[in-house]
Amino acid sequence: GNSVTQMEGPVTLSEEAFLTINCTYTATGYPSLFWYVQYPGEGLQLLLKATKADDKGSNKGFEATYRKETTSFHLEKGSVQVSDSAVYFCALPSNTGNQFYFGTGTSLTVIP
Amino acid sequence: EPEVTQTPSHQVTQMGQEVILRCVPISNHLYFYWYRQILGQKVEFLVSFYNNEISEKSEIFDDQFSVERPDGSNFTLKIRSTKLEDSAMYFCASSTNRGSDYGYTFGSGTRLTVV
After folding, report:
1. Contact criterion met (CB < 8 Å) for B43 and A46
2. Which of A43, A51, A102 sits opposite B108 (nearest CB)?
3. Chain A closest CA to B105's CA: distance in Å?
4. Dist. CA B25–CA B102, nearest whole Å
5. How far apart are CA A35 and CA A12, in angstroms?
6. Which residues of chain A are within 8 Å of residue B105 when distances are taken between CB atoms?
């Protein structure tokens, strides 16, 4: 079945540092891929998505490219801010499309 | 921006008691979901619901769990006899199309504490 493997955390960065959170997937076919973010005390919010190979999803300065050849969807941001401190989840749908599989989550703390 | 609303935000219940977690999905959404997240662990799928019936459910969603859409706006998760291990954050989500293409909108969650 489909699954995602996500880089373990926690990650601590200084403000304006470059961020990469790794995510690799296993899937039948080519499902859409997603990154969700969970700010402290809140629910999950869709951060970005990509629907097919070589697509780049982007939002709020974050980017992720759907790489079929490496089965990866790594999340990147060129310059993180304190407000980016959150838990980030990579996700993809099941073959039926009725549920999502989430990665274990990567906690990011950005210090001033 | 439209929101998925969940109530209560925090519920404490005694083991063996029934609880009902409530959700108001976005009004034009047709697909509804419940997920849970035990503290510090993965977000786990419980159930998906479409056209007034369960589309899919996980192994977690045993006979103690049920879902209902009692009217045009609410979507509820009932746990009949709570166990300590049911303590978790429960998230409701909805989508206008199949979430696999567009993603979901999640609520802020209900923290359930079973004592």
Report:
1. no
2. A43
3. 7
4. 16
5. 19
6. 46
Are residues A99 and B105, on separate chains, in Cβ contact within 8 Å? no
Angle value at C-alpha A76, between A73 and A80, nearest 5 degrees:
155
Length of chain A: 112
Q: Which of B39, B69, B35 is nearest to B51 (CA)?
A: B69
- Hey, what are B112's tokens? 């359930």
Chain A residues closer than 8 Å to B6 by CB: 43
For an interface test with A, the pick among B43, B45, B49 (most A C-beta atoms closer than 10 Å) comes out as B43
Joined tokens for residue B51:
């056209």
- Contacts with A2 from chain B: Cβ below 8 Å: none
Burial class (CB in 10 A: 0-12, 13-18, 19+), B50: middle
Torsion of CA A48, B3, A2, A50, to 10 degrees: -20
Separation CA A6–CA B85 (nearest Å): 25
> Residue B11 to residues A4, B80, B93: CA-CA distances in angstroms?
31, 15, 19
List all residues 6 or more positions away from B84 whose beta carbon is below 8 Å from its beta carbon. Answer: B15, B114, B115
Which residues, listed in sequence order, are joined to residue A33 by a DSSP beta bridge? A50
Q: Along the 115 residues of chain B, how does pLDDT read in single tens digits?
A: 778 999 999 999 999 999 999 999 999 899 999 999 998 888 999 999 999 999 999 999 999 999 999 887 899 999 999 999 999 999 999 998 877 778 889 999 999 999 9
Whole-number pLDDT of residue B70: 86
